[in-house]
């Protein structure tokens, strides 16, 4: 790393030179930046954080208005500073806007000097030297770095499954990323596809104003009313650790299990929380099951998850497995075929529960330590 902390990044050959570039200022990028700063690196000089969004908060400002955490604020914090309290007893777990405000204050609190909007289009090698620099291109700006941490998450890459007749459906098809409020669907017939927390929460909202049908590929698993996200994170960590040690783990919960937040409990009490098996095709007026049963609908909302947003890494020519870049090393986040690159916060493959506020800390810390050691 650089020895002096009293100068701005040096522009050389039209590229801004720095030691580390962190791509993304959501929860994963901020946590990594926190640990880089704590290790003695100066934000804006020894490392820079680039973010594509125009405002702080990562993907959270783009989620639906009624989204809530499924854990208390005290359990949903990034390293270094606890999320401000939220009155869970009176209002349920923290809402989206509380999280956005926390992330905005977090980057200010630690003076992380995030550069935005700077969408990274490409990460490439400056030359053929295995210990050379990586070039990070963001619009008209190019950064030359010794190490790059990719923390772009998954929200920008929604997954749409393929079913016969999707092009023939005459109604509206949306993904989770497109949904904002239930009022837009008042009086309509809506099919919600997906068996996770997002689908359950969106169904709960829309069912208050529309005729809803819930469709899942496999039976959803509901947690007991008195169990929240804390159990999910603990089980996820234990499961990954068991796999690493070659042991079996029979946890009773997983990150895909549905937490009974107040809105979902209300939907259950109203009798609308009944999943149907997955339909086999779409027709212009609705959906059809294998046995010929049909249901008319106006809207289909696909709550079918996401894939890692890794398009910017294509110039590196890294081999992928199931859309993932193989990682390992002491940090568990170092790209096996490009050791100058780390991937943080994309899911369990980059660290147990690392795509969550509560779970990103260990992966971010290990990544920062590895980056600082690789001078």
Textual characterization of the structure:
The structure is a single chain. With 375 residues, the protein is of the alpha/beta class. The chain is built from seven helices and 17 strands. The strands form four sheets. Strands 1, 2, 3, 4, 5, 6 and 17 form a seven-stranded mixed β-sheet that branches. It has a five-stranded parallel β-sheet with strand order 7-14-8-9-10, with helices on one face. The longest helix is centred in the middle third of the chain and has 16 residues, at 229-244. The protein is globular and about 60 Å long.
Task: Indicate the topology.
Elements: E1 10-12, E2 15-23, H1 27-38, E3 47-50, H2 88-91, H3 96-109, E4 122-125, E5 134-138, E6 141-150, E7 172-175, E8 189-193, H4 197-206, E9 211-216, H5 229-244, H6 262-269, E10 275-277, E11 281-283, E12 286-288, E13 294-296, E14 299-302, E15 327-328, E16 334-335, E17 341-343, H7 360-373
Parallel strand pairs: 2-3, 2-6, 6-17, 7-14, 8-9, 8-14, 9-10
Antiparallel strand pairs: 1-2, 4-5, 5-6, 11-12, 12-13, 15-16
Helix pairs in contact: 1-7, 4-6
> Count of helices?
7
- Helix-strand pattern, N to C? EEHEHHEEEEEHEHHEEEEEEEEH
Span between termini = 6 Å
User: What is the mean predicted local confidence, pLDDT?
Assistant: 89
Our estimate of the beta-strand percent is 15-25%
Structural class comes to: alpha/beta
Radius of gyration: 22 Å
Low-confidence stretches: 1-12, 249-253
* Anisotropy-based shape: globular
Tally of DSSP β-strands:
17
Largest sheet: 7 strands, mixed
Proportion of residues in helical segments: 10-25%
